[in-house]
Amino acid sequence: MDYSGKSTTEEIRARFDADVERFSNLETGQSAAMDSRLMLDLAASVCGAMRPEAEALLDIGCGAGNYTLRLLDALPRLHSVTAVDLSQPMLDRARLRVLAARAGIAWEELRGDIRELDLGRGRFDFAVAAAVLHHLRGEGEWRMVFRKIHDALKPGGALWIADMVEHAHPLAQQAMWTRYGEYLAGLRDEAYRDHVFAYIEREDTPRPAVWQLDRLREAGFGQVDILHKNGPFALFGAYKI
Known about the structure:
This protein has helices at residues 9-17, 36-50, 66-74, 88-101, 139-152, 170-187, 190-203, 209-218, and strands at 56-60, 80-85, 106-111, 124-130, 153-164, 223-230, 233-239. It is of the alpha/beta class. It has one domain (9-165, 205-239): 3-Layer(aba) Sandwich (Rossmann fold). A 7-stranded mixed β-sheet has the order 3-2-1-4-5-7-6, with helices on both faces. Helix 4 links the parallel strand 2 and strand 3 (106-111). Helix 5 (139-152) crosses helix 8 and helix 6 packs across helix 7. The longest helix is centred in the C-terminal third of the chain and has 18 residues, at 170-187. The protein starts with 8 loop residues before the first helix and ends with a strand.
């Protein structure tokens, strides 16, 4: 597939540098994503139930820190956060919010492209990736990133992905896209819907949730799971055995 017409990493970074406020509302989450706050709450609930003693979190595409903040509520022993993002203004906002929420937490930030960063091995109890992996392009990038995340998790750890997804059948995709357009128009108006659709067309290359689950298994995860799906958005993940 030809990705030459898609936004470059620097173009994506510049857009997010200028959009910090939209990603800083813990009550609504990212409103352009359907069920954003629900997926945030579900991920936190499952992490708290699975591993309440968790100490180390990897937040990929952390934005302004909403997922880390919600996980702090669910994981009382969490004392180490590694935040990854292209945008320094996003990292700055996330740092301020997280350190205000839990004084003394060990904060590490990695500014850059997840495809290029060294995440280490066996470091994290949980990894979360919200509204970020849809920027990956070719299949080789997805496979490499999933292997990298798998290796960075401790045994028994888990990755949770909250993201836009495609559908394998074109008519299913069309139906879900129509549903999403109605959601956006209802959230604001048709001009906002067209604005969001335009930058998705320019920036994003999502893959079906089932396709991603297959790639997660190939990367070494022992089990996969789906917590929620509504229209072209889903929360799903994988467990490292």
